[in-house]
Design brief:
It comes from Notoacmeibacter ruber. This is Pyridoxamine 5'-phosphate oxidase family protein. With 199 residues, this protein is an alpha+beta fold. The chain has two domains: 140 residues, Electron Transport, Fmn-binding Protein, Chain A (Pnp Oxidase, Chain A); 36 residues, no CATH class. The protein contains eight helices and seven strands. A seven-stranded antiparallel sheet has the order 2-1-5-6-7-4-3, covered by helices on one side.
Length: 199
Amino acid sequence: MDDETLNTIYGEPVPASLVKETDHLIASYRALIEASPFFALASAGPDGLDCSPRGERGGAVTIADERTLIIPDRRGNNRIDTLRNIVADPRVALLFLIPGSGTTLRVNGRAIVTIDAELLESLALNGKMPRSAIVISIDSVYFQCARAVMRADLWNPEHHALAESLPTAGEILAEASDNELGGAAYDRQWPQRAARTLD
């Protein structure tokens, strides 16, 4: 497959799919980001690709200006795959979801990791500062139409998976580690561990 073949199969993009792309946040795009508590952050590095879920009620991202986004790196599992990738290759992509809305927002840009004390202090949550922050310079931003969310019927409670029908984190860890980690004890302790590390 090559680019010419793809163009033959798909034809020209519709004008609306091109005019919606900007190199900065217009007012509408700012409103979508401010409404989104969750996004996926994709990065690439010498060890491969990473796509990390990020979320925070009340705004998962700080909008510094029309060309700059700031993401606090809240406590997690310390794998820091995303941060390692950004240090090696600044290119990132973000996909914002808004519960109840079919519209998603995509941002492509270049990122740096910072430990600037003043910035981290401004990002404190419940008195706890993130250990670092990701500062993204926007290259392009555009909304994605609702077709994928509509096809998935993503926000319809009737189609939500029942927790009891899915493997638990403890069960997954036990299977992946040949029962060296995880199990029922892991699941019992998880709510307390999570409560201590949400900030």
